[in-house]
Specification:
The chain has 407 residues and is mainly alpha-helical. The chain has two domains: 190 residues, MFS general substrate transporter like domains (Growth Hormone, Chain: A), CATH 1.20.1250.20; 199 residues, Growth Hormone, Chain: A, CATH 1.20.1250.20. The chain contains 16 helices and no strands. The longest helix has 31 residues.
Length: 407
């Protein structure tokens, strides 16, 4: 990720990039690949769906809790060895998940895998900041956003294929080889941290200031809105517009695909324009997209949904690249792990809020928890109200993001 000076340094930079990409990909893939297996796990363990959901929830909860710990350990013991420890935990947990003989062993192993994923996601971000030059930091963060979107999009399709061909255990076992490869690459390619241990006496609060706090709050709000889109989208498309499951899957894949394509260009724009201007642009597009979601799908159907996501998805990638760059660009090297951990923490809290609180807003707006029995008009009303709430959240996010900051 550093500027090329020679073929040797270019090769070293490429290997570092591959290592960090693989780490981020594994963390995001672990989040999405299991969802498609929930019906299979319900049958395999003869357990109710409410219990099987713990396979997903345990991963998210431990990933959220461990994010700040991972960052602090990176600052204390060095980013490279801490990432390697996280890859070791993730690798072991992947084997244990596939070997689980009952549901609660699987839930426990997934919790351990979530801890490993927190280390992968947090330290990949911190190491990106450490190894990228300031002039190329935006595109480096944009690349991480692309990889995260790729993992999220790839998970359901890859998981479904593995279940059909080999069985559910292989959705976990297949994560072991790339984790081992990432461990080997990390050991031989990542630079040693000369500032290791220099953050021993710093408290977590010493990292926070008003500017960083704004980035964290807005990061959580945007994550909640994007997760809300993924949660209520299938209900609206299937129950409100009457699409088949295959059609719903196709429409829902449009957003992640746009995110994959727009990640790196968003980062390049941050490098060219500055994080502040791109952050404003991203939040504006998100607000327009949310407002369109409140009205266009109900007015013109699937075309309105697609037009709305075409605005919303690139807005999210612009925001993500700019917000991460602005949060990390002036952070001392012995604080980058802690700040990366806080960014991961705020994002994961937003994902949980988007799943629970915003899902509840949708259900209350529809007027029933039994969405399958709701009328088309009720589903449409729920869609409109929920995205108007999201629009209000985005107005708040824009207001919070304003203040003294770098261009």
């Amino acid at each position: 990720m550093q500027q090329q000076k020679s073929p040797a340094s270019a090769n070293g930079t490429t290997r570092i990039t591959i290592t960090l990409i693989l780490s981020m990909l594994l963390a995001s893939l672990g989040t999405s690949i299991v969802n498609v297996a929930l019906p299979t796990l319900t049958a395999a363990f003869s357990a109710p769906f409410t219990q099987v959901q713990a396979v997903v929830v345990s991963y998210l909860i431990t990933q959220t809790i461990a994010a700040v710990v991972a960052g602090r350990m990176g600052d204390r013991y060095g980013l490279k060895p801490t990432l390697m420890a996280g890859l070791s935990v993730f690798s072991l947990a992947s084997l244990l998940c596939g070997a689980a003989t009952n549901l609660w062993l699987l839930v426990s192993a997934r919790a351990l895998q979530g801890i490993g994923a927190a280390f992968l996601m947090t330290l990949a971000m911190a190491l990106t900041r450490q190894t990228a030059t300031k002039a190329r930091l935006g595109r480096a963060m944009g690349l991480l956003g692309t990889v995260s979107a790729l993992g999220t999009a790839l998970g359901p399709s890859l998981g479904g294929l593995l279940i059909a061909l080999l069985g559910w255990r292989y959705i976990f076992w297949m994560q072991f080889p790339p984790a081992v490869i990432a461990f080997i690459l990390a050991s031989v390619t990542l630079p040693n941290d000369p500032d290791k241990g220099s953050g021993l006496s710093a408290s977590l609060w010493s990292v926070l200031d008003q500017r960083l706090a704004r980035h964290l709050v807005v990061n959580g709000l945007i994550a909640a809105i994007m997760m809300m889109t993924l949660v209520i989208g299938p209900f609206y498309l299937g129950l409100g517009l009457g699409l088949t499951a295959m059609q719903v899957g196709f429409v829902m894949a449009i957003g992640p695909m746009i995110s994959i394509v727009s990640g790196v260009p968003s980062g390049r724009l941050v490098d060219a324009w500055g994080a502040g201007r791109v952050l404003d642009l991203g939040l504006t597009l998100l607000l327009i997209g949310a407002f369109l979601f409140a009205f266009l799908p109900n007015a013109i159907g699937v075309a309105g949904y697609v037009l709305s996501i075409i605005v919303l998805a690139p807005g999210y990638q612009l925001f993500q690249a700019a917000n991460s760059t602005a949060a990390l660009e002036d952070i001392p090297s012995n604080r980058q792990g802690a700040v990366s951990g806080l960014l991961t923490l705020s994002r994961n809290i937003g994902l949980i809020v988007g799943t629970s609180a915003m899902g509840t807003v949708f259900a209350l707006s529809v007027g029933t928890q039994e969405l399958a029995h709701a009328s088309t008009l009720a589903i449409a009303s729920g869609m409109r109200v929920t995205f108007l709430v999201a629009s209000a959240m985005l107005v708040a996010a824009i207001s919070i993001s304003r203040g003294p900051r770098r261009a």
